[in-house]
Design a protein that fits this description.
By secondary structure, this protein is mainly beta. The chain has one domain: Immunoglobulin-like, CATH 2.60.40. Helix content is 10%, strand content 40%. The chain has a 4-stranded antiparallel beta sheet, with no helix packed on it. Strands 7-3-10 form a 3-stranded antiparallel beta sheet, with no helix packed on it. A 3-stranded antiparallel beta sheet has the order 5-4-9, with no helix packed on it. The relative contact order is 0.25.
Length: 163
Protein backbone atom coordinates (compact mmCIF):
# COMPACT_ATOMS: atom_id res chain seq x y z
CA UNK A 1 0.00 0.00 0.00
CA UNK A 2 2.89 2.26 0.71
CA UNK A 3 4.10 1.73 -2.83
CA UNK A 4 0.66 2.62 -4.17
CA UNK A 5 0.54 5.80 -2.08
CA UNK A 6 3.99 6.78 -3.24
CA UNK A 7 3.03 6.10 -6.87
CA UNK A 8 -0.16 8.20 -6.55
CA UNK A 9 1.77 11.00 -4.91
CA UNK A 10 4.36 10.94 -7.69
CA UNK A 11 1.65 10.95 -10.34
CA UNK A 12 -0.13 13.86 -8.64
CA UNK A 13 3.09 15.86 -8.42
CA UNK A 14 3.88 15.12 -12.07
CA UNK A 15 0.41 16.16 -13.21
CA UNK A 16 0.45 19.37 -11.19
CA UNK A 17 3.86 20.32 -12.52
CA UNK A 18 2.63 19.76 -16.09
CA UNK A 19 -0.80 21.32 -15.77
CA UNK A 20 -2.66 21.82 -19.02
CA UNK A 21 -2.39 25.47 -20.04
CA UNK A 22 -5.71 27.22 -20.53
CA UNK A 23 -6.15 29.09 -23.85
CA UNK A 24 -8.40 32.11 -24.03
CA UNK A 25 -9.33 34.04 -27.15
CA UNK A 26 -11.05 37.33 -27.67
CA UNK A 27 -12.03 39.16 -30.82
CA UNK A 28 -12.00 42.80 -31.79
CA UNK A 29 -14.49 43.59 -34.55
CA UNK A 30 -13.41 46.37 -36.90
CA UNK A 31 -15.88 48.27 -39.02
CA UNK A 32 -16.02 51.57 -40.83
CA UNK A 33 -18.83 53.22 -42.72
CA UNK A 34 -18.62 55.68 -45.56
CA UNK A 35 -21.94 57.10 -46.61
CA UNK A 36 -22.68 57.84 -50.24
CA UNK A 37 -22.18 61.51 -50.85
CA UNK A 38 -23.12 63.22 -54.10
CA UNK A 39 -23.30 66.96 -54.69
CA UNK A 40 -24.43 69.08 -57.61
CA UNK A 41 -24.25 72.86 -57.70
CA UNK A 42 -25.03 75.20 -60.58
CA UNK A 43 -24.58 78.94 -60.45
CA UNK A 44 -25.02 81.82 -62.81
CA UNK A 45 -22.41 84.52 -63.24
CA UNK A 46 -24.73 87.45 -63.98
CA UNK A 47 -24.70 86.99 -67.74
CA UNK A 48 -27.36 84.30 -67.42
CA UNK A 49 -29.91 86.93 -66.37
CA UNK A 50 -28.82 89.62 -68.79
CA UNK A 51 -28.40 87.98 -72.20
CA UNK A 52 -27.69 90.38 -75.08
CA UNK A 53 -30.35 89.02 -77.43
CA UNK A 54 -30.32 91.71 -80.12
CA UNK A 55 -27.42 90.01 -81.94
CA UNK A 56 -26.05 86.48 -82.21
CA UNK A 57 -24.20 85.27 -79.12
CA UNK A 58 -21.06 83.22 -79.61
CA UNK A 59 -20.00 81.29 -76.51
CA UNK A 60 -21.00 83.70 -73.74
CA UNK A 61 -20.04 82.41 -70.30
CA UNK A 62 -23.27 82.16 -68.27
CA UNK A 63 -22.36 80.02 -65.27
CA UNK A 64 -20.57 77.11 -63.69
CA UNK A 65 -21.48 73.56 -62.72
CA UNK A 66 -19.75 71.63 -59.91
CA UNK A 67 -20.27 67.94 -59.14
CA UNK A 68 -18.76 65.31 -56.89
CA UNK A 69 -19.90 61.80 -56.00
CA UNK A 70 -18.27 58.82 -54.33
CA UNK A 71 -20.59 56.15 -55.78
CA UNK A 72 -18.50 53.11 -56.79
CA UNK A 73 -20.27 52.76 -60.14
CA UNK A 74 -20.06 56.46 -60.92
CA UNK A 75 -22.83 58.80 -61.98
CA UNK A 76 -24.36 60.43 -64.99
CA UNK A 77 -25.03 64.09 -65.50
CA UNK A 78 -27.85 65.26 -67.72
CA UNK A 79 -29.37 68.58 -68.66
CA UNK A 80 -33.01 69.29 -69.52
CA UNK A 81 -34.67 72.47 -70.72
CA UNK A 82 -38.25 73.52 -70.21
CA UNK A 83 -38.58 75.12 -73.68
CA UNK A 84 -36.49 72.71 -75.80
CA UNK A 85 -33.46 75.02 -75.90
CA UNK A 86 -35.47 78.09 -76.85
CA UNK A 87 -35.73 81.41 -75.04
CA UNK A 88 -39.43 82.24 -75.22
CA UNK A 89 -41.33 85.41 -74.56
CA UNK A 90 -44.82 85.50 -73.08
CA UNK A 91 -45.78 88.05 -75.75
CA UNK A 92 -45.94 85.45 -78.51
CA UNK A 93 -42.88 86.72 -80.38
CA UNK A 94 -40.68 84.18 -82.18
CA UNK A 95 -38.40 82.28 -79.76
CA UNK A 96 -34.63 82.57 -79.78
CA UNK A 97 -32.89 79.22 -80.26
CA UNK A 98 -29.76 78.59 -78.22
CA UNK A 99 -27.08 76.01 -77.61
CA UNK A 100 -24.95 75.32 -74.54
CA UNK A 101 -21.39 74.08 -74.16
CA UNK A 102 -19.54 72.81 -71.09
CA UNK A 103 -15.78 73.22 -70.73
CA UNK A 104 -14.02 71.49 -67.84
CA UNK A 105 -12.06 73.75 -65.50
CA UNK A 106 -11.32 71.11 -62.81
CA UNK A 107 -11.22 67.44 -63.70
CA UNK A 108 -11.99 66.38 -67.24
CA UNK A 109 -15.34 64.63 -67.02
CA UNK A 110 -17.72 67.52 -67.71
CA UNK A 111 -16.58 68.54 -71.13
CA UNK A 112 -18.48 68.60 -74.39
CA UNK A 113 -16.79 68.81 -77.73
CA UNK A 114 -19.71 70.69 -79.25
CA UNK A 115 -22.71 72.65 -78.16
CA UNK A 116 -25.82 71.18 -76.58
CA UNK A 117 -28.10 70.91 -79.60
CA UNK A 118 -30.78 73.46 -80.21
CA UNK A 119 -34.42 72.34 -80.04
CA UNK A 120 -33.61 69.48 -77.69
CA UNK A 121 -35.25 68.89 -74.33
CA UNK A 122 -32.66 66.59 -72.78
CA UNK A 123 -29.08 65.49 -73.15
CA UNK A 124 -26.73 63.27 -71.14
CA UNK A 125 -23.58 65.36 -70.94
CA UNK A 126 -21.30 63.07 -68.93
CA UNK A 127 -20.81 59.65 -67.39
CA UNK A 128 -18.38 60.11 -64.53
CA UNK A 129 -16.51 57.51 -62.48
CA UNK A 130 -14.00 59.91 -60.91
CA UNK A 131 -14.74 60.66 -57.24
CA UNK A 132 -12.90 63.99 -57.26
CA UNK A 133 -14.68 67.29 -57.70
CA UNK A 134 -15.55 68.20 -61.29
CA UNK A 135 -16.13 71.78 -62.46
CA UNK A 136 -17.10 73.17 -65.83
CA UNK A 137 -17.93 76.57 -67.24
CA UNK A 138 -21.24 76.85 -69.07
CA UNK A 139 -21.36 78.77 -72.36
CA UNK A 140 -24.38 79.88 -74.38
CA UNK A 141 -24.65 80.69 -78.07
CA UNK A 142 -27.54 81.88 -80.23
CA UNK A 143 -27.46 81.66 -84.03
CA UNK A 144 -29.33 84.93 -84.38
CA UNK A 145 -30.66 87.75 -82.28
CA UNK A 146 -34.10 89.30 -82.14
CA UNK A 147 -35.40 92.83 -82.30
CA UNK A 148 -38.81 92.08 -80.77
CA UNK A 149 -39.32 93.42 -77.25
CA UNK A 150 -40.04 91.02 -74.43
CA UNK A 151 -38.56 89.02 -71.61
CA UNK A 152 -37.19 85.80 -73.07
CA UNK A 153 -36.71 82.88 -70.69
CA UNK A 154 -36.04 79.19 -70.41
CA UNK A 155 -35.29 76.99 -67.40
CA UNK A 156 -32.36 74.60 -67.53
CA UNK A 157 -32.31 71.71 -65.07
CA UNK A 158 -29.22 69.62 -64.31
CA UNK A 159 -29.60 66.12 -62.85
CA UNK A 160 -26.94 63.95 -61.21
CA UNK A 161 -27.97 60.27 -61.15
CA UNK A 162 -25.88 57.51 -59.57
CA UNK A 163 -25.30 54.47 -61.79
Amino acid sequence: MKKLSTALLALTLFASSHAIAATKTATLPLQGTIAESCTLAVGGNGNNGNLPLTAPINGLSVGIIVTQCNNFNGYSLSVDTLNASQLKSSGGTPPVDYTMKFTATQGTAINTSGFFPSNSNSLDIAKISDTTQQKADIYLSTPKGTSYPGIYTDTVTFTLQTL
